[in-house]
Structures are given as structure tokens and as C-alpha cells.
Amino acid sequence: MLFRHLIMTTLACCLAGRGMAQAYNGMHKYDGEHPNVLTSYLTVGDNILCDHFYGLEASYTRHLTDRWHVGGDMQVQMGKQLYSVDVQGGYRLPVKWMDFYLDGKVMYNRYQRWGTNEIMINLSLTWETPYFYLRFGETYIHYNMLDFGYSEPLTLTVGTGVNIRPRWDSWNIGLFIRNYDDFYYEAYNINWGVNFWANLMKDVQLFGEVDLRPAGSLSQLATEYEKSLKLGLRYVW
To answer: Distance (Å, rounded) from C-alpha 150 to C-alpha 45?
Structure first.
């Protein structure tokens, strides 16, 4: 049922957005016209720890030049009682029809239900083409609960994805698999799913994502840990 509604929404938006100019849909590539990017989306889902959850997320990116960008993100999730904020920035190196990104992020998560604070520092390198991307990096993760603190060994960040159309088209559908998301980096809980985007107007875009996370690292015997749906808007000016 969820996938049927997602497909119907995607097709409707594609028809509505056909023929409109489209901002580039890459990591953080500047399209030459809109240096500001504001994104907001709703997340709903459930997992084995807190049953159902929902949240609101927002992010802002400022293109300082056609190579450098800075930005930040925040989220509030009910059910999980998770509150997050981060700052980030990066550099883009174009090579013919490809782009290479070196970007860093510093993130703070507050798990209110468990009284836990989490600090993450990530540095990643991404190779991106019009249809495909591959991302590798390392993440430092530190937890603090009451008087107890713990730092994990450096966590490998890895992700890849493919689209059925070039990123600059007015609509697109893609598949991805990775061990990170907007507000977490994990060594073993793999996140995979399908995403889409479609123009509503020249400067407004609808996007969505279905995420599935098994309780294990790509094991065929792993039970389901979490599933979620994201749906939101991206505005550029």
C-alpha cells in the first residue's frame, strides 16, 4: 500500500513538473542561479525500540562559490524523543562529467528518552556522476550518559546509489544502500531503499524516500529493525 501511494504520487508530480527548469540534484552542486537551498521534510516510521515515530527535519545550504558550500541541519523526532543539530561544509572538484566532493560534518544528537548525548564528526569523499555515486569516509562517535562516556572506534562510512535518469532531469527515481542517513552514522545497520524527486515549480521540488534497516549487516537472517518514509519540499532562491 505504501509503495503504491508513493508511485502514484511520483507519477502525478512528474506530469505536473514536465518541461520546467530543474536545479541540479547532486551532493551540493551549485546550479549557477540559486545559491540558497532550504529543505524541509516529514519522517514517519516504526522500529523495534519505540514502535511508531514521526519527526520534522529542516536543512539549509549556502553556496559560497561554485566550489564551496556550508550549511546546517536540525530535526525533532517524537517517539524516539530524538533532537539533532549539525553544521557542515565541503568542496567540490569537477572533473569532466564527474564531480568529487570532500565534505565534513559535526553533529549533536540528544536521545531524551535514554538521557544520552551523542557527538559525531564525519569526513567523507564522494565520487558522483549523472547516474551514480559512491561515498567513503570515517566517523568519530562519542556517547555520554550520566557519568559514563564511550568513544567508538572510527566508523567506516560507505554508500552508493543509482538513478534511472540524469540528476538534472525534472523527475527521477533511484535506489541506494548505505550505513548512514541525515542524522546518524552506523557501522553495521545497513540502510537501503528507494527515493524520488519531481518538480512542482521552477524553484520548488517534491522529494521522498523509503528506508528499510535490517537488524544486522546485510544478513539474510536479520530481522527488521526499522522502516520509515520521508516526504518533503526543497526550495531554492
So the answer is: 29
Contact 60, 237 (CB under 8 A): no
Q: What is the pLDDT of residues 95-146, one digit of tens each?
A: 999 999 999 999 999 998 888 999 999 999 999 999 999 999 999 999 998 8
SS3 114: helix
Residues 215, 202: Cα–Cα separation, whole Å: 40
Residue numbers in the chain where pLDDT is lower than 70: 1-27, 215-224
Task: Please give the model's pTM, rounded to 2 decimal places.
Answer: 0.84
Question: Closest Cα to residue 143, out of 81, 186, 188, 87?
Answer: 186
Please name the residues in contact with 204: beta carbons below 8 A apart, sequence gap of 6 or more. Answer: 233, 234, 235
Grid coordinates standing for 192?
537501503
Residue 208 and residue 9: Cα distance in Å, rounded?
Answer: 10
Phi/psi for 214 (5° steps) reads -75, 160
Residue with grid cell 526550495, as numbered in its chain: 235
Q: Distance between CA atoms of 185 and 124, rounded to whole angstroms?
A: 12
Which of 181, 185, 164 minimizes the C-alpha distance to 173?
164
